Amino acid sequence: MKSNLIILMTLLGLPFFASTGFAEPTIKYNAQGMMTWTKFQTFENVLSTTPYTKTEVDLPVLELSIEYYLDPHSEIEIEVEFEHGGTGSTLEYDPFEEFGEFETEQEAGGEVVLSEFYYRKKLNGLRWLKIGKLPLPVSLGNFQESFFNYNSVYGSSGEQYMLPTDWHEIGVEYHQLFGSYGFKLLIVNGLNSEFFRKYNWIGGGYQKRFETINSDDLAGVMTLEYGDLLTGNGIALALYSGDTRGNRYKQNKLSESAHVQLVSLLASWTFGHVGLRAQSITGTLTNSDKVSLANSSLASSVNPGAFASLGHKAFLNSIELSYNTLQDDEQTLQTFVAFDQVDTMAEVEGAILKDDRYNRLISSFGMRWRWDEIMFLKLQQSKFSNALDGVPDTQSTTLAFGFDLAGLNL
Question: Does residue 309 carry a pLDDT above 50?
Answer without folding.
Answer: yes
